[in-house]
Amino acid sequence: MFQIKNTTKNLVVEKRETFSSGLAIFFATLGSAVGLGNIWKFPTLVGMNGGGGFVFVYLICILLLGIPTMISEFYIGRKTKSNAVGAFKKLNANSFGIIGYLGVIASLLIMFFYCVVAGWVYSYVFKSIRGDFKNLANLPIGEATNFVSNIYSNTINGSIEPMIWQVIVLLVVGTILIAGVKNGIEKTTKLLMPLLISLILIICIRSLTLEGASKGLNFLFSIDLSKLTPSVILSALGLSFFKLSVGMGTMITYGSYFTEDNDMIKTSMRVAFSDTLVSIIIGMAIFPVVFTFNLEPGAGPGLLFNTIPLVFSKIPFGNILLIAFFVFTSFAATMSMLSMVEVPVTFLKEEYKIDRKKSVLIVLTIIFIIGLLTSHPSSIFGDIKLFGKSFFDLYDYISSNLVLPIGGLLIAIYVGYKSKKDDIINELSNKSELNNTKAINLYLVILKYLTPLLLIIVFLNSIGII
Question: Taking the C-alpha atoms of 238, 310, 214 and 38 in order, what is their torsion angle to the nearest 10 degrees?
């Protein structure tokens, strides 16, 4: 077991890093938001919750909940230049210190299942290179559909293979994080993000030429109000927090690396807009395939793994593109994991004075052990259900629908009601260098009166009170 001691004996103080530029900040924060949430979770939840109506509610949640909370986290992070827990100590807001601890807990809970899914993605890179999908083009639609479904089933239910890929994922993440903020996180996201978006656009264009494209687009964009149940609204809220990496301390941590001249309001809006656009494009790429091949839109987590090989099987040089797609999907997963793991790593580094390398190793070991024992279907505790959910689903539910909204609510209350308005204006305007007073005032109105109310309603619904 690791023993953590809060000591300053023989301490070598490391100079705190920052991102080098506004572009680096944008790619890093967008890299945190754009990941498996876009490529895997967004189409999965859209499919399971009726399509366009879910997308409509999700967009509202982004505007009224996601963006205001992201701005608030940026404000706290850059003002304090500290980790999610230490930030509230510097603000003399110890009664709100639970926000930071909730962020650390949420990041770990998400990583317990997220690294497992990332392992599936990494394994599909290997399967594609090995040529497992080369014969799809020669199979009738029914046989092709069964073929990819069987590969997916074997991938997630394997006894050893998925665990090996989980280790590989964590080794990649650990190597990048040990390199630091500039040489690790920044360089990785600046290189991979443009490549990822370019390939997504290529896939979308190809999918729109399929015979099921019109049905897929109709499913994605048509709003059926009868399908907007409380559970759909709750799922949309949870996704808006999950997708933008807010409520878990990630943006407080990344905000602490911001330069003093960064426009935090514009950065949050650009990240939210770009992230949402990527999600929509992914939906436009996947749902035409779903309807072309008569798949079930609500098929759940396997939707991504069952559709992408099918669409590439109908494209010239499809196997090469399939390899590229899963390579870049693995990049997206990796970029998101960097931000989530950075939260507990920075917490250990700054609160317990453990150097970065040891902090990374401690956090990844915890994630590996718990993920290994509980999140794989074939693991020791993989078939145990609590409250009717597997550990995999329970981690997802607790983090997305409980911990993140509570963290977001407390952040909104702290910044909206406990922080001095002059301090907020001073920080968000970069000491009056930016002419954005109207935007700040609009943000504060939404943060004080709409964001908390919606979060309270949804939270009460999630625990069955309303």
Answer: 20
Both tokens of 282, joined, read 């992914």
Residue 432: other Cβ atoms inside 10 A: 10
Q: How far is CA 226 from the centre of its chain?
A: 29
Residue 223's Cβ-count burial label (10 Å; 0-12, 13-18, 19+) is middle
Which residues have C-beta within 8 Å of that of residue 351, sequence separation ≥ 6?
6, 83, 85, 86
Q: Which residue in the block uniquely carries the two structure tokens 């619904």?
A: 461
Q: Supply the pLDDT for residue 7.
A: 44
pLDDT tens, 230-241? Answer: 778 877 877 777
For residues 258 and 436, give the distance between their C-alpha atoms in angstroms, rounded to a whole number.
Answer: 18
Instruction: Round to whole Å and give the CA distance between 103 and 411.
Output: 11
The Cα–Cα gap between 459 and 101 comes to 19
Please check whether residue 260 is in contact with residue 422, taking contact to mean a CB–CB distance below 8 angstroms: no
User: What does DSSP assign to residue 139?
Assistant: S
Q: Give the Cα separation of 216 and 182 in Å (integer).
A: 41
- Mean pLDDT value of segment 90-109: 94
Whose CA is closest to 43, among 279, 335, 326, 333?
279
Q: How far apart are CA 414 and CA 418, in angstroms?
A: 5
Six-digit token string for 230: 């409380």
Calculate the dihedral angle through the C-alpha atoms of 367, 107, 334, 150, rounding to the nearest 10 degrees.
Answer: 70
User: What gap in Å lies between CA 127 and CA 323, rounded to an integer?
Assistant: 9
For residue range 115-162, list pLDDT tens digits in order: 998 999 999 999 999 999 988 888 888 898 899 989 999 999 988 899
CB atoms inside a 10 Å sphere around CB 154: 11
Q: pLDDT for 405-431, tens place per residue? A: 899 899 999 999 999 999 999 999 999
